[in-house]
Amino acid sequence: MQSNIFRVLAITRKQMLLSLVILLSTVLFIACGKDSEELDVHTNVVMPADECPHSDPIEWWYYTGLVQTEDLRKFGFEFVIFQASLAEQPGYMSHFAITDVADQSFHHEGYLVSGDQATQGTCAGFDLIVEDWQLSGHQGKDHLVASVDGYELTLDLETTKPIVFQYGNGEMTIGSDLPFYYYSYTNMQAAGTITVDGQVLPVTGTAWMDHQWGDMGTGHEGWDWYSLRLDDQTEIMFFIVRDNDQERFVGGTYIDQAGRATELVREDFQINSLSTWTSPQTNGTYPMGWEINLPAYDLVLTVNPVFEEQEFTISFLNSPIYWEGLCEVSGTRKNTEVTGHAYIELTGYAE
């Protein structure tokens, strides 16, 4: 049974946050533009300084992963904190979801708060709180705490590979002349606990972290984002930004066992949807199940959701509804079997 719980904020608080909500309502695929002199403009990505919150129009720290208990019960998770700059008052929206594979159930929650959480003085990573959810990190060692529907996840994460600067150098433009920045930790070891209806269970697993900020321009209908983690210790990211059912911006990255990243362009891969799924809650129809080919890496992969109903339906004043789900990966590399898991995000298919 899918969870759709939204903790209603007090009326006075809603009034205070109204402007923030309007701005954040499009953060999943349209960020508000600003004049260039207002932006915290960089030359590519500089670490560790760029771990810290910026003054750009939109920014997010985004985690997806798979953990399992000692008896191999599996849970997928998504946890993200968005920051939007509105005058001198930043605001934060957070989403958290748990996919309980054994129960075939999806649970999700969202919050919205205002108030500056940027690190004062010399920045050393990020340390964010939204309601009672926590997210902190510095140089590939992160910590998160979030809960929903009787599930509470507490994890320590540590990267096993070098940082990946997406787009080759961590910078691109998407519908704007101003830059948009993106780096990832694609293979983080996870250890901690998940509490399920009061029972505390140790878990271990892996996670993928994305940090993105800048100006995304306008005119985006939606996007498809794919993150694949193969059991041979390689990872792959693809993204397709759509407008009027046409591909507008497309790219990706292949990360080998040693952590070396290679930028992918549209000609490097083929993605074909195998089916569709129509949400009983929103009537949105999503592509579902994919065949992915990377000829240069001799990879032929099939990606299927562990179950279809993983739609995030909580919306703040018409913020986008989207599908983001845990998937299983199977296929071959040079005729040798390869397996793994993936998280796929699909926006712009439901209203």
Describe the protein's architecture and organization.
Helix content is 4%, strand content 55%. It is mainly beta. It has a single domain (11-347), classed as AttH-like domain (AttH-like fold), CATH 2.40.370.10. Strands 1, 2, 3, 4, 5, 6, 7, 8, 9, 10, 11 and 12 form a 12-stranded antiparallel beta sheet that branches. Strands 13, 14, 15, 16, 17, 18, 19, 20, 21 and 22 form a 10-stranded antiparallel beta sheet that branches. The longest helix is centred in the first third of the chain and has 14 residues, at 11-24. Residues 1-23 and 25-41 have low confidence and may be disordered.
Describe the secondary structure blueprint for this structure.
Elements: H1 11-24, E1 58-69, E2 74-84, E3 91-100, E4 105-114, E5 126-130, E6 133-138, E7 141-148, E8 151-159, E9 164-165, E10 171-172, E11 180-196, E12 199-214, E13 222-230, E14 235-243, E15 246-255, E16 261-264, E17 270-278, E18 285-294, E19 299-305, E20 311-312, E21 322-333, E22 336-347
CATH architecture: Beta Barrel
CATH class: Mainly Beta
**DSSP E strands, number:** 22
- Count the DSSP helices: 1
Tell me the number of structural domains. Answer: 1
Question: What features would you highlight for this structure?
Answer:
1 helix; 12-stranded antiparallel beta sheet; AttH-like fold; disordered N terminus; 4% helix; 351 residues; mainly beta; 10-stranded antiparallel beta sheet
Give a short summary of the structure.
It contains 1 helix and 22 strands.
